[in-house]
Amino acid sequence: MSKKIMILPGDGIGPEIVTQAQRVLDAVNEKFSLNLSFVEELIGGASIDKHGEPLTDAAVENARSCDAILLGAVGGPKWDTIDRAIRPERGLLKIRSQLGLYANLRPALLYPQLVEASSLKPEVVSGLDILIVRELTGGIYFGEPRGIRTLDNGEREGFNTYKYSESEIERIGRTAFEMARKRGKKVCSVDKANVLEATILWREVMDRLAPEYPDVELSHMYVDNAAMQLVRAPKQFDVMVTGNMFGDILSDAAAMLTGSIGMLPSASLNQSGQGMYEPCHGSAPDIAGQGIANPLATILSASMMLRYSLGMNEAADAIEKAVGKVLDQGLRTADIATGGTTKVSTSAMGDAVLAAL
Ligand code: NAD
Description:
- By secondary structure, this protein is of the alpha/beta class.
- It has two domains: 1-102 and 275-357, Isopropylmalate Dehydrogenase, CATH 3.40.718; 105-269, Isopropylmalate Dehydrogenase.
- The protein is built from twelve helices and 14 strands.
- The protein has helices spanning 14-31, 45-51, 57-64, 88-98, 122-125, 166-181, 197-209, 223-232, 244-257, 296-308, 313-328, 346-356; strands at 3-10, 36-40, 68-73, 103-109, 129-135, 147-150, 156-159, 186-191, 217-222, 239-242, 265-269, 275-279, 331-332, 342-343.
- It has a ten-stranded mixed beta sheet, sandwiched between helices. Strands 6-7 form a two-stranded antiparallel ribbon.
- It starts with a strand and ends with a helix.
- Bound molecules: nicotinamide-adenine-dinucleotide.
- Nicotinamide-adenine-dinucleotide is lined by residues 13, 17, 73-76, 89, 92, 261-262, 278, 281-287, 293-294, 297, 335.
- Nicotinamide-adenine-dinucleotide binds at residues 13, 17, 73-76, 89, 92, 261-262, 278, 281-287, 293-294, 297, 335.
């Protein structure tokens, strides 16, 4: 049966890196007779420029009919000063909430070939393999009321609402326990239960779930300590589960442990397994158009898509193996280049992965 994939290149380096991922998908499509078909839509600044909004309802409807979505990245200085309600990032929030993509999976895996590119000492990071499970459709990024209001004294005040319902915590908690079962069987739940009531409930629900997963060890950690432990002794973690905002921050910190944010894929899944796959990084406007962006996070996102939403494990394995082979050959984009390696462009990296396939 044919599987339909939506491609959302987005802004900045988005189109450059998605082009390489598309080439890789085309290659495995042919090699493994996957019967994939593709449709493309605009998101972010590109959509604002054409339609006056960061994601049209028609694009969302189209996305609903797809089995999976591959996204580049959105945003850039061109759209930084427009009305907040239609900024590029709103397109992302819209598709995540409309499709109910509540579970964001962010692996932070250090390729042995890149140990020198990590910001930490090799002995601290070698063998690192963490999965951060971030709740994506709730918490302070969506909580109402929100806004900027003027107080009686004329001063302005910004405010947001941090809330999580038991069912929201439970479903992301279950995702974390299930993922841990397939890995190192440890879940560390990250909260700020010493200060925030919303996360006191978070901790309570996680504790309530734990007996249902006796084979998985649950621990709790305050987010400030978790940030510290990630840079002190990151290998203590297997699966980390946390809310939207903490997950946003911790996953970027974990990204740097792996050498470059340009290496990290992510998946956002809904309850029916439909997912959106994207690199963890943004649109990198500082290097857009220069042909130097690292396409590997997007290529690895495509491989996660084949694995988690389409059940095409053989093709996913082949892509991951090809990426490992290219790194073995010493080929590196500028962000992960170290002494003794060969610096290559975005498209040359794509060529190399195709050749390795
Ligand atoms: P960023 O991730 O775009 O860039 C941070 C740094 O990492 C930059 O120096 C950039 O050059 C580098 N970098 C990122 N991806 C790279 C890659 N593939 N190869 C090589 N280097 C790479 O974050 P930022 O600078 O904070 O944000 C830039 C824009 O991206 C903003 O408009 C922001 O809102 C947006 N953004 C979008 C997403 C998304 O689409 N999911 C996520 C984060 C930020």
